[in-house]
Amino acid sequence: MGPRFQNDDRARLYREMYEQHGALAPVVLPGDVPCWLVLGYRELHQITSDPALFSRDSGLWNQWPNIPADWPLLPMVGKQPSILYTVGERHHRRATLISDALAAVDPFELRENSERFADRLIDEICGRGSADLIAEYAKVLPALVLARLYGFSDEAGADLVPSINALVDGGAEALEGRDRVNSAMRSLLASRREAPAAGVASRLLHHDYSDDFSFEEIVEDMMVTFVAGHQPTADWIGNSLRLMLTDDRFAASLSGGRHSVAEAMNEVLWEDTPTQNIAGRWATRDTQLAGRHIAAGDLLMLSFAAANGDPQVRPDRTAFTGGNSAFLSFGHGEHRCPYPAQDIAEGIARTGIEVLLDRLPDVDLAVGAQALVWRPSPFLRGLASLPVRFSPTPTSTAGGHG
After folding, report:
1. Are the C-beta atoms of 220 and 249 separated by less than 8 Å?
2. d(CA 79, CA 27)
3. Is the Cβ–Cβ distance between 162 and 131 less than 8 Å?
4. What is the rounded CA–CA span in Å between residue 123 and residue 396?
5. Rounded to 10 degrees, what is the CA torsion of 39, 42, 48, 49?
6. How far is residue 12's CA from residue 5's CA, in Å, rounded to a whole number?
7. CA nearest 205: which of 93, 214, 146?
């Protein structure tokens, strides 16, 4: 959580840790709680491929006797009833339920909703000539689209946005935001239980596996998938726009071909992946990994960001990845981000960026690139703000953008 970790030295810091410790570094979490940080690409792949040895069951943690009730990382590491910490056959059935509910999202509906909400948000800023593309665009668009896909009305979705962002920002209003989101999810599911309709919520309740899980578990999984779908997608939009506005390789894309949007988004998943570190896996028995002795119950924090820059995999970090999609940004193994969720996130992010560049073709940074500030999070990577300027333009017509 030091200053180097929060600024652009983060990638170099991971490299230095790798040079000093190898693929597995001993670190401490707040309160001097010991943990292993997995820096190596191959090691992360090995861990996520072996759930029998490296479990997602946080109940195995050998540090629970030393963890106070108010430990700040409990929301990310604690025992939870969601799919994130379910293992074995029950996890498989739960994952199938969620994946099937998301897979049924119509890609044309996804594109239409993403364009519609993107146009609506740009209409609110386009006449001003300046905006913060994080607060006024990236942190709003995914929540609006996901709310619609899940079954909320547009009005209810708009009401959810501040609560979703309060929850993920982790500030003084985080718990209140979580309660409001939980209440909204609960109300939507209750109404869909009585009157099924289109949307992810109904599909979660009326699946072949739905009876295997309680109403409370389905509420929790809706929360998890919604929040996990919103914040990394918001950061994917913001990080990609930052790259396109600051890197000469993508400068032409602001007035040129669409293909460079996809390339920038792919490059971000290597260089500034939104999901940086995740807790984690727990060793089910004593074992060896990367020359280190891992004791039963040890916590291994998975660093997707460090693994993507592993010098054994990417010896030259300055080389353009050129569309290579072997990054670990969506995880790996049975607990990876579901493929339909990945497709939805990509659809929202790419549409959001394309519509913005169509509507505001001369958009440019309003500050120097070095003045941009990253949010202080050990887990996620995203900008605190992205101030831009552009030529004022009229609002969109009924025919849409373009």
Report:
1. no
2. 21
3. no
4. 7
5. -170
6. 9
7. 214
225 and 217 Cβ atoms separated by less than 8 Å: no
Structure tokens at 302: 């998975």
368 contacts: CB under 8 Å, gap ≥ 6: none
CA atoms within 13 A on the CB side of 138: 28
Residues paired with residue 27 on neighbouring β-strands, in sequence order? 35
Residue 90's φ and ψ, nearest 5 degrees, are -65, -40
**Among residues 336, 343, 265, which one has the least CA distance to residue 109?**
343
Helices 107-123, 141-150: inter-axial angle, 10-degree rounding: 140
Report which of 147, 134, 231 is spatially closest to residue 181, judged by C-alpha positions: 147
pLDDT tens for the 402 residues of the chain, in order: 677 777 767 888 899 999 999 999 999 998 899 999 999 999 999 999 999 999 999 999 999 999 988 887 887 787 777 888 888 899 899 999 999 999 999 999 999 999 999 999 999 999 999 999 999 999 999 999 999 999 999 999 999 988 888 877 666 777 788 889 999 999 999 999 989 898 999 999 999 999 999 999 999 999 989 988 999 999 999 999 999 999 877 765 455 555 588 889 999 998 889 999 988 899 999 999 999 999 999 999 999 999 998 888 876 666 666 667 778 888 888 888 889 999 999 999 999 999 999 999 999 999 999 999 998 777 889 999 999 999 999 987 644 554
List the strands of the sheet with 364-365, edge to edge. 130-132, 387-389, 364-365
Q: What does the alpha-carbon distance between residue 192 and residue 201 come to, in Å, rounded to a whole number?
A: 7
